[in-house]
Amino acid sequence: MLHKLFERGDWFPPKRYGYGAGLPIAWQGWFLMASYLGTLAGIALLDRSGMPGGRALALALFIVVTACFLIAVARRTQGGWKWRWGQRD
């Protein structure tokens, strides 16, 4: 089952206008998005924990996790990320 996660293919469609990707079109994209949101929930709990240095650690984790998520989405978007003016590619 794990090998299916790493199959080649597009997980996200490009946005029709602007820069970036739309909602997922494959189960792997939905899994990635759910994992990202779950991780953000865990980071929010860490931020609210009152642990010494917890806020700084939460901020650092937020930046790293978000950067990894955006890189993964950009690599799995049909046609990559570029500015689009509404025409079909």
Provide a descriptive summary of the structure in words.
There is one protein chain. By secondary structure, the protein is mostly helical. Helices cover 54% and strands 4% of the residues. The chain has helices at 2-5, 27-48, 54-75, and strands at 17-18, 84-85. A two-stranded antiparallel sheet has the order 1-2. It is elongated, with a radius of gyration of 16 Å. The relative contact order is 0.21. The model has no long low-confidence stretch (mean pLDDT 86).
First and last CA, distance: 33 Å
The fraction of residues assigned to DSSP E strands is: under 5%
Q: Enumerate the spans where pLDDT stays under 50 for 5 or more consecutive residues.
A: none
Helix content: 40-55%
The description of the largest β-sheet is: 2 strands, antiparallel
Described by the principal axes of the CA atoms, the overall outline is elongated
Strand tally: 2
Total helices: the number is: 3
- The average pLDDT score comes to 86
The ordered string of helix (H) and strand (E) elements is HEHHE
- What is the radius of gyration computed over CA atoms, rounded to a whole number of angstroms? 16 Å
Which secondary-structure class do the elements indicate?
Answer: mainly alpha
Order of the strands making up the biggest sheet? 1-2
Summed up, what is this model?
With 89 residues, this protein is mainly alpha-helical. The chain is built from three helices and two strands, in the order αβααβ. It has a two-stranded antiparallel sheet.
